[in-house]
Amino acid sequence: MRLLWQRAVRLQKLMPQTHLAPHTHARRLLATTSASARGGGQEEKENPKWSSPGSKAEIFLYGAFWAGGLGLGYVWLTRRYSSTPDEEVKPDDEAVARLWHITPRKDLPTYKTEQVEQHNAPDKGIWVTYGLGVYDVTEFAENHPGGDKIMMAAGSAIDPFWAIYQQHNTLEVLELLESFRIGNLEGLTVPNAEEELGSPWAQEPERHALLKPASKRPFNAEPPIGLLAEKFYTPNEMFYVRNHLPVPVLVPEEYELEIDTSGGEQGGPLLTLTLAQIKALPRHTVTAAIMCGGNRRSEMTDIKAVKGLSWGAGAVGNAKWSGARLCDVLREQGVQPNESMHVIFEGADLDPTSHPYGASIPLSKALDPRGDVLLAYEMNDEPLTRDHGYPIRVIVPGVVGARNVKWLTRIMVADHESDSHWQQNDYKGFSPSTDWDTVDFSKAEAIQAMPVTSAICTPLPGERVKVDPQGGYITVRGYAWSGGGRKILRVDLTGDEGKTWHVAELEQEDSPDGRHYGWSLWTARLPIPEEQQQRRKAGGSGELEIWAKAVDSAYNVQPEKFEHIWNLRGVLANAYHKVKVKLA
Amino acid sequence: MRLLWQRAVRLQKLMPQTHLAPHTHARRLLATTSASARGGGQEEKENPKWSSPGSKAEIFLYGAFWAGGLGLGYVWLTRRYSSTPDEEVKPDDEAVARLWHITPRKDLPTYKTEQVEQHNAPDKGIWVTYGLGVYDVTEFAENHPGGDKIMMAAGSAIDPFWAIYQQHNTLEVLELLESFRIGNLEGLTVPNAEEELGSPWAQEPERHALLKPASKRPFNAEPPIGLLAEKFYTPNEMFYVRNHLPVPVLVPEEYELEIDTSGGEQGGPLLTLTLAQIKALPRHTVTAAIMCGGNRRSEMTDIKAVKGLSWGAGAVGNAKWSGARLCDVLREQGVQPNESMHVIFEGADLDPTSHPYGASIPLSKALDPRGDVLLAYEMNDEPLTRDHGYPIRVIVPGVVGARNVKWLTRIMVADHESDSHWQQNDYKGFSPSTDWDTVDFSKAEAIQAMPVTSAICTPLPGERVKVDPQGGYITVRGYAWSGGGRKILRVDLTGDEGKTWHVAELEQEDSPDGRHYGWSLWTARLPIPEEQQQRRKAGGSGELEIWAKAVDSAYNVQPEKFEHIWNLRGVLANAYHKVKVKLA
To answer: What Cα–Cα distance (Å) separates residue A454 from each residue in A21, A296, A457, A546, A575?
Structure first.
């Protein structure tokens, strides 16, 4: 308990503006530790069941306490429509659907909280509440797109989870939920904690108006792709944002990074570094593109629906990152190479059960000086912004964005991967025939290095493009990148479905292969066959489909189409980029 | 001169059975060194022009001296038909064509050797002789599939080159050459060295009868693909052979490996290691598949002709290699990491101008303990065979076969890649629209790590396959591999053009990713749709096309088809493997 308390005090120091007292942090930590941990006096008073932190009722009460519970849906709804409605909302239907869970259904029975609590496992049935609705999700639970997470709410309220994971607040999901409705919840037993604690979203930073949100809470947004290839280093305020949880508020003077190498071979004692200490380590700068595992997912969705945010081709950016090298820190601690070990990262962003966002990478990558893994404090020569992990994030060049943990608070050397949802049950690839009935996340490897990809940034789909009157060509521009430090060797363009290919000019850094972590921008002059130009002048459609494909230094090439790489999570969407334009 | 002589004596020690006296070695070396080197007495006597080793006439005389010159073609022809004719030969036409160059053409003028010698550059015209034919190849030279090599024979005889590169001895090439014929060569000025020196092919080893030659001289052969996936470690005698030149004869007691690190940062003095000394270094074993850059070229040829040996899918094998680690040797010599440097390897196999086979890899790969580069003396726990580089070859795991130099005699750390033909003007990839008119080898990167690939080994194309009566499936088996140490994560099979995919079971070593150099064998049960089984029983064709595709640990996947990865050299042929079978 003492250790837990110390850690809570430390977290409290890190996040003084989150209105959470140390004992609240301790409770959160308790909920994440083994059953051998026992709660102390104050927790007992507030919740007699606290000493068995695994119980669903406890998570229910705690979660509701933290994020608002019953009534929050309504508050949120009214606020929502008094401010800026999302573009994708159909106000009529969805506004009505948003009232269902706070409206009693007279055709259905009423249940007590205790009755709901008893239905917290597949063999007992899985019930959840949302507002005052009671829902039987036993059948649905195993198909839940978010995986096991739904079990955290089994026998309790989903309100605090949905307050975080707002991708649930769509007409489709609300309709699905209402179809599981079996009754109404008796009484209002849950305190409205909204006012006491503030919304977890109250401290979100301001964002650039050009960032197009794929979701607002958590905030996930990409810049307009037409601007993306204009600058080799993506401007910080235009860099795509991929948050899994609310943005934590960290105070630099109080920031501490805990480095636990005791699980490694010859690892040293626990090390705690302040921001000043990290900045005092030898500074190292690396150019690296960071790409979301779901970049270009929207194109894959055209084949068949997938679960995930509908990213365009803008969930990538290229920046110059500066910080201390993780390999220096680990070696200084005495950590020896071991092929079966991992380095686990935790962020200060916490989910409703107080689990931090987490991910891991192989120790071999972390220890390799050519791996260039950084404890980064600067992005394009400026301090990180809050959306990009201020004050410290880990940069794992060549590796999927999800492992580049932001708001880094803890590093552990361990003989296993991170047990976080995002490492275990997300960001993995599957065969096109694997569906939500057959998927087994434990059988697939977590994405680390990303495959080769490219995208056409200009012209945009549907754009009217002027053919150069002298040269008979159009100019096409975009980016290309491959993971694992593999340099882009070539980008090929075609306007006739591959009958002829035209090699683009590359703009790239002169980094060595294997350590070439930045992206390549490319420009191609794509000749328009005379015949096609004539057809257009004669009043034909003048439509042209442009294809781009990149080749990396292992001579890997993008697959032609999405059909055969489709996967249920819509990750790794790296088929040829195809854009239809009109010749002007 | 002294140094040259020493090196020649050393080479002579290495290859006592090649009938070459030290002065002959010295002459060879001389031909490969800068113009500042000057010949000594004996060479002067034999060839007054020897002191200007760059002259074409000298190479002509020397080359002819070495390999046989005039008359060899005829000798070779008669021998050929008295032994085993190649399958692809059309005896009538080709036998006649093989006589053309030793038959005077009365309709054409006669030229002196000196006249031929004057035509040795594009601006003066490029003439060559073959037998007693004189040919003007000025126009053809720039389209020569072998690149600049043709210029080595400019103004002189091609006979010694064709004796090595016997891919020229086809009806097509002989017809092309005769179309350039402009005259007859006066007199017989070239000594017949055949008897003095023996054919360079006289010392070739015995090979296993099951190895199917794609070419006999140099020997290039693959095992039947149907046997390839039977054993995880390919039996040594069944391992594909890719020789670029005649197999040298090296005596283990005399073998020496020269290691020149003086070009590297903090490199040490010249080091010479005997075989015993190499074996005394710490022994390291690594499982690695070696794959020819042209593996599966024959499938690419189906799209459009390419230049290169017609390999099936058997130009790959998997073995356990043992030897000393190159990184240990280089570090012991003090070599420091440097991202812009390379390690150059030379073999004891020499071309007609005495240039050794050569290749290079980045220094970063050579110095990386995870790179596992070996000075290998054992293959599957047995000493290397002569065809696989006895007594020492370098094993560069994860990298195209061409860099795994056999009969290794010299290692150099340098600030540039190997200047060998095979590094500079071969084993590179190009866009599908690059042809022999537009290709610029200097603009493409030498292949190092190979892309992900897979092949179906059984059933064979056209085979009648029995559907399992209970399960309604057929069993499909093959291999998959990716370069750069990337592990195979998954192999997907389809029998309905990708409408449904079935994941294969993998057999692979438990090596860590990034260091997973061995191949993966796989077995899949491919369900046959009931409908198709019925159709077959009703007398339908019962034909089934099976596709296989592999996914590596960077989630790179094979491209669907060859059309968009076609390249003029037919390398990197890693599209889906597609095999049509008949259901029995």
So the answer is: 48, 10, 9, 13, 8
Q: What is the reported pLDDT for A24?
A: 38
The helix/strand/coil state of B475 is: strand
Q: Would you report the helix, strand and coil content of chain B in percent, each value rounded to 5?
A: 30, 25, 45
CB A505 within 8 A of CB A497: no
> What ipTM does the predicted assembly reach?
0.75
Strands (E), B64-223: 110-111, 120-121, 125-130, 133-136, 156-157, 181-185, 212-215, 220-222
* A443-459 core/surface letters (b: 16 or more CB in 10 A; e: else): ebebbbbbbbbbbbbbb
If you count residue pairs, one on A and one on B, with CB atoms under 8 Å apart, how many are there?
137
Chain A CB contacts of B369 under 8 Å are 337
Q: Could you give the CA distance from residue B372 to residue B396 in angstroms, rounded to a whole number? A: 7
User: Which residue of B441, B556, B576 to mutate against A (max A Cβ within 10 Å)?
Assistant: B556
**Rg (Cα) of chain B, in Å, rounded?**
25
CB B567 within 8 A of CB B431: yes
Measure CA of the first residue to CA of the last residue in chain A; give whole Å: 71
> Nearest Cα to B557, choosing from A441, A440, A512, A567?
A567
DSSP string, A367-398: H-GGG--EEEEEETTEEPPGGGTTT-EEE-TT
Residue type, A38: R
pLDDT tens by residue, A445-485: 999 999 999 999 999 999 999 999 888 999 999 999 999 99
Q: How far is B505 from chain A (nearest CA, A)?
A: 12
Q: How many other C-beta atoms are found inside a 10 Å radius of the C-beta of residue A243?
A: 21
Looking at the partner chain, which of B364, B498, B551 has a beta carbon nearest the beta carbon of A514? Answer: B364
Element (H, E) at A479: strand A473-481
Q: Is 0.80 topped by the overall pTM?
A: no
What is the rounded distance in angstroms from the CA atom of residue A126 to the CA atom of residue A134? 11
Paired strand residues for A127:
A136
Indicate if the alpha-carbon torsion angle B106, B112, B115, B120 is positive or negative: positive
Place of tokens 């019930």: A127
CA-to-CA separations, B3 to B8, B38, B40, B355, B420, in angstroms, rounded: 9, 12, 13, 17, 22
Of residues B253 and A353, more confidence is placed in B253
